[in-house]
Specification:
Layout lengths: L10 H19 L4 H30 L4 H4 L18 H10 L18 H31 L4 H21 L7 H6 L7 H9 L2 H14 L1 H15 L6 H8 L4
């Protein structure tokens, strides 16, 4: 039962926040190294966002009766406990670095049999993307405040890039594709036998992998078009993300 006694903000997450803050300070104080500083700031910030995304799933599952998430340590915000194979934190980080696509992976192992109502299962799937959206709005607001208070432009744009990444995670995860949170929102609400067929699709990992390949190699125009629509509805000006994204890929 050791995992049940872990604190809500463990050392690993505190260290992660400290590194995130240090990268932001370097970006603020040394704009001449804006390339590698933007990369470090946005990448570590993205991992913070991943932790919040997975915590959203875990916290909502615990609220609806799944005690196993606490036993596994998921309520600690510890990035280490969210590493469940390459599809968790490792793959999303690689996809972000190589392709600029922000896609959280499946990391929280839950007990569906402990969830009493189907609508609760849908909300558990929705909670992760909602956390990504909240973090996107937080970093966007911080970027706008930085601009209005005379912060270095590269710092404000890096915050906008982080907002862009998390808004993309929100949009992508709501796609009704097996393995994505959007599919998990819809599946519990389907009538039988459609629900049974959908659950079988979710147990086929190659479908999720195929979806990732399609998105990675062919999906950019559609992803950005959908992202622009969502940003417009929310009233977000993400134009500052483009120069920051170019600095993020400082090796190119």
């Amino acid at each position: 039962m050791e995992l049940e006694n872990r604190t809500a903000t463990p050392l690993n997450f505190i260290v992660l926040l400290a590194v995130f803050g240090a990268a932001g300070l370097v970006l603020w104080m040394r704009p001449e190294v804006a390339g590698i500083a933007t990369f470090g700031f946005a990448l570590v910030g993205w991992i913070v966002g991943l932790c919040l995304h997975e915590f959203g799933h875990a916290a909502s599952a615990a609220a609806f009766g799944d005690y196993s998430v606490r036993q596994r340590g998921y309520l600690t915000l510890d990035p280490v406990v969210y590493i469940n194979g390459p599809n968790s934190i490792v793959l999303p980080v690689l996809i972000l670095v190589l392709g600029g696509i922000a896609l959280p992976g499946a990391a929280v192992m839950m007990r569906p049999d402990l969830i009493r109502h189907r609508w609760q299962s849908s909300l558990i799937s929705l909670a992760g993307p909602i956390m990504s959206l909240v973090f996107a709005l937080m970093t966007y607001t911080a970027g706008q405040m930085a601009i209005s208070n005379g912060a270095p432009e590269v710092f404000a744009q890096a915050l906008t890039l982080l907002a862009f990444f998390n808004l993309m995670a929100f949009v992508l995860n709501l796609l009704p594709v097996p393995g994505f949170d959007g599919f998990g929102v819809i599946t519990p609400l389907l009538p039988q036998p459609l629900r049974g067929m959908a659950e079988q699709l979710e147990r086929m990992p190659w479908i999720s992998l195929l979806a990732l390949v399609v998105i990675f190699f062919f999906g950019f125009p559609y992803i950005f078009a959908l992202l622009r629509i969502v940003a417009g509805v929310l009233g977000l000006d993400l134009s500052g993300a483009q120069p920051a994204l170019e600095r993020f890929r400082f090796w190119g």
